[in-house]
Amino acid sequence: MQVFEGHSLLTDAVAAVDEAISDWDKAVRPDIIFAFHSTKQDPHLVAKVLRERFPDALIAGGTTAGEWRTGNYQKSSLVLTSISSPNIRWSLDVVEDIVAITEKTATDVFRNLLTKLDITPSDLRPNRHFCIGLVDGVRGLDGSAVAAMANQLGNVPFLGGNMADDLKFTETFVMANGRAISGGGVFVLAECDEPFKPFKHQHFVPGDVDMVISRAVESERKVLRLDGKPAAEHYAKLIGYAVEDLCFQVFSDHPVIYRYGDENYVRTITSANDDGSLTFYCAIEEGMVLNLCKQKDMSAELEEQISGLVEDGGEASLLLVCNCSFRGLEAEGKSLSQDLAKHVTRAAKHVMGFDSYGELWNGLHINQTLVGLAIGRE
Predict the structure, then answer these.
(1) Model pTM?
(2) Residue 75 carries which DSSP code?
């Protein structure tokens, strides 16, 4: 596997792309390029220039709330990674409107991905195929698109993230083959004869207090009542705050966990509203049991998990990272950002990734989590 990476802090999109690829071997023709960038660079120009520079490569990516590269975490930058390997075949398909996705839409996307690889559903193997999803991070937060695609993929590993816009929460873009699309989604299916391993990391564990969503507006991800009480007031009381003190940082420090099967998934609150309700970043349902979780040391927990990953399979050639922007805020507040970047770099020779508005993990849209995919072996 040949991997080239580059980055630029220039805000001019053309100059940023040219700087990021300046050291790439011109003789190598990438099979696929992943591009993650801040809102400082024009997404339409980045997409256009990359298509002009690499007309034969698949291109996927989008806007972020922070960029990851080998050994470093940064903001306001463009990060590019090209992959060439005779052992990996890639296909890409686009959903123009992620909110309008249906089971039929997902079926069509799935069939397109298979057709481009010249395979059938019966050919899919969880140890040979994986899917990466990159979806709009403002309009596509209800999780239905993720669930619809996961239903098609079955037990094929499926992970990715919601694109971001530097915490403006206004408009995000996904990138696909020369276009930047607001409100859309990009799905990449790979047939991989290199070893690969997906993993999920979070540093929250179940606490002692459960709450039941007793009334909600599910389409708006809004919880009106918890345990039969006004949601914001009840949540604030349980964590020892006044309602008027609830804010972005408090929600980041005090998320809740939803238990599904044998795993715990973090659900993050985005706002306390004037009507006494709480709005969540992820899909919620009436009757869902939420747990007030406890926080462990993020850096130490990640270091331990990465060490286990390396011990199990050795150093990978490439690591894709989708990291929640709330984790990014916590790391920045505790001056841990570069420590986390160094931890993940121990797992692979090359690292690429971004801070997201929610992570995708096998059919679920989750929060305050880092999901990753290690590909190849050094």
Answers:
(1) 0.91
(2) S
